[in-house]
Amino acid sequence: MPEKKDGGNLDTVPSQVGQVLEDQYYENDAVFGEITGEGPNYRSLGWVGTAALMMKSQIGLGVLSIPGALDTLGIVPGVIILITVAIITTWSDYMVGVFKLRHREVYSIGDVGGMLFGRPGKIFFGVAFVLYWIFCAGSGMLSISISLNAVSSHGACTAIFVAIAAIIGFVLGSIQTLGRMSWLAWGGLFCILTAILIVTIGVAVQSRPSAAPQGGVWVSDYQIAATPNFTDAITAVSTIVFAYAGTPSFFSIVSEMRDPRLYTRSLLFCQSVVTGVYVFIGCMVYYYCGSYVSSPALGSAGPMMKKISYGFALPGLIVSTMLLIHLPSKYIFLRLLKGSRHLTANTVTHWMTWISCTFMIAMASYIIASAIPVFSGLVSLVGALLGTLMSFQPMGFMWLYDNWTQEKAERSLKWKLMVCWSVFVIVSGTFLMIAGTYGSIVSIIDSYGKSGGSAAWSCADNSNS
């Protein structure tokens, strides 16, 4: 058995790519308690699987909104903003791993809120965490329904497709550990990247996008730099921020790693791939489509390519929804059974509690997605408000929490620069949160004024936008 560390935690045995560590148990994990052979091993996730889960929590249909953001901002300002957001969120994500190693008892952003701001902070960030992923899971269900509509040429009522998505998400989301989900994450990631690549190739080889005028000579009207008004600009920036807003899930992911010390390796691999995909896909699709890019962009290359790309994307969208249901369910599950033997043992109480949590989250996501007429706008609002709040400000406070109390003699230039950087992350995150929320509210009011929103449990085809 590994040696005990301070606080009752057990040290981990470093793992290598492809290596399976047999009979490795963590007798007193700071989050999950005693882990034995009587139940699931919550500490079974390797660094490669960690990278896959990280990338899958970031890359989804959100990447296909980036060409639309570049249309609003222009290619050069859009790419600069995207890379800036990537740098800030990469540091935020890095702080998740550092904070976890220093405070092994942390499982979620709610725990961080409790350490920073006491019980009110723990409740606030815990509720924000669950609410954020519920709305994201609802968005995932609608994305699956869009895919099914596109592939089947609206072969059934959309409300039926959303219900099917909810059932599939519930079943797969009930897989107990992230370690068992990692191979699904790789498959889902491959499928969504293949779909994106198909669209990119499709718009590159076609003479014009499907939404462009079909008569006469057509030349892409892409812009190097655009001049949007404030509302449109901040909405586009929020779209880019939302594409990196998987940060709150990283606490849960690192908590199930066999060796959390390898977290940074997984993170750098994840962020490099994600940023490369975002820049390449965003620029290529926007360059060839210009202002006629569809949102999501899978419909930009015409009806046939739309069917093919959505067909490939479907497994990736299912995996995303599975993960979005699993994360808040696991958070509630841990809160209910923490300190109990039922947490890590395959008892009736364990399974009833776990299935109840995943069913409750899946049902809440389904009802919200199906019943709210302005759901897509509301997801943008929740992303701007809660996604930004949980991806920027807490990480700045986390560094200050661990480093502010240094003696004056130890406050070097590096320390002062890090204080300035942490304050910058907090201030910039607060600005983006407030401005993005304002932009989302204005967009909801405008879209509702034009269309009145969608009907609850609508049968209408939602794949033609």
Automatic annotation (TrEMBL):
Source species: Penicillium frequentans
Annotated membrane topology: Multi-pass membrane protein
User: Could you confirm whether the keyword Transmembrane helix appears in this record?
Assistant: yes
The UniProt similarity line reads: Belongs to the amino acid/polyamine transporter 2 family.
Q: What is this protein called?
A: Transmembrane amino acid transporter protein-domain-containing protein
Q: Which domain of life is it from?
A: Eukaryota
- Carries keyword Transmembrane? yes
Q: What is its main location?
A: membrane
